[in-house]
Write a structure and sequence with these properties.
Length: 278
């Protein structure tokens, strides 16, 4: 079948912010490297599976014996790896996964594969990020009809896969509620620490005098807090702010929330100080 699903693990980044090869890192108790774990997941859905690397880059631990595709010239970043895959098999649909998405599990790829089976003519099948609603192009399926589209963008010097999916108005799948943090990627040692401690990333907004005291109005925070109340206390202790529940109100995703409200990755948490006049 010319458009059979092929797998591509993107591992060609330089990992400069991490300070070591992300694909060779071991995070879980299973002893698997990021590359080994991701390749195992791809093999559940794909026939051939390939490893995408820069020219001259050594194979990461866990990727031994996997056929390697080197980045094509004339493109940059992940797009150069995806284009190399299409040069290898232009009639295939490519299930693309980055090596730095440790929370991706087989269920998420199964949903992508099922949607592709429903509409194999679709050039792109991707999830929307729970944080900002933007496409996540590094856990996605690129159908055969995506090849000329990507080539056209590369010829324009347009190399960002996320921006390409935006410009092409690609319909996006919503992440399941239990998996809103599953597309969290690892770029720094702090990101790794967050994953190992079970932290999730939430967006925080400050208003009134709290914004003045904090010195900013919005930020992203990795937290292990399970509830809005736990997060209130965490922020109070961390920044020495008076966030007493009798005075400061908390809203989660634009709805006022009690302290027992359970937080999810990607939630928007707002701390509201009293308004003038009561």
């Amino acid at each position: 079948m010319s458009n059979a699903l092929h797998g591509l693990l993107l591992a060609g980044g330089k990992s400069s912010r991490m300070g070591c090869d992300k694909a060779s890192m071991v995070l879980g108790d299973d002893g698997l490297t990021q590359a080994g774990r991701a390749l195992g997941i791809l093999r559940q859905f794909c026939g051939p599976v390939y490893l995408s690397l820069r020219e001259g880059q050594p194979v990461p631990a866990g990727g031994e014996g996997v056929p390697v595709l080197h980045d094509v010239p004339g493109a940059q970043g992940p797009l150069s790896g995806i284009l190399a895959a299409f040069h290898q098999a232009p009639g295939a649909a490519w299930l693309v996964l980055a090596c730095d998405l440790p929370l991706v599990h087989p269920g998420l790829l199964a949903r992508l594969a099922a949607r592709y089976a429903e509409d194999p003519s679709s050039p792109f099948i991707a999830y929307a990020s729970a944080l900002d609603g933007l496409p996540e192009p590094l856990c996605a399926i690129y159908g055969p009809s995506a090849f000329p589209v990507l080539g056209r963008h590369a010829a324009r010097g347009h190399f960002c896969p996320r921006h390409i999916l935006l410009e092409e108005s690609v319909p996006l799948l919503a992440l399941p509620e239990a998996d809103t943090g599953a597309l969290t990627n690892l770029n720094t040692p702090q990101d790794v620490a967050g994953v190992r401690t079970g932290a999730r990333e939430v967006r925080v907004a400050w208003f009134g005098h709290l914004a003045d005291q904090r010195g900013l109005r919005e930020e992203r925070v990795a937290t292990t807090a399970e509830t809005a109340g736990d997060f209130r206390r965490e922020m109070s202790d961390l920044h020495r702010l008076d966030l007493d529940s009798g005075v400061v109100r908390v809203a989660v995703n634009d709805e006022f929330a009690l302290d027992g409200h359970r937080l999810q990755a990607g939630d928007r948490v707002v701390f509201l100080s009293p308004f003038a006049g009561g």
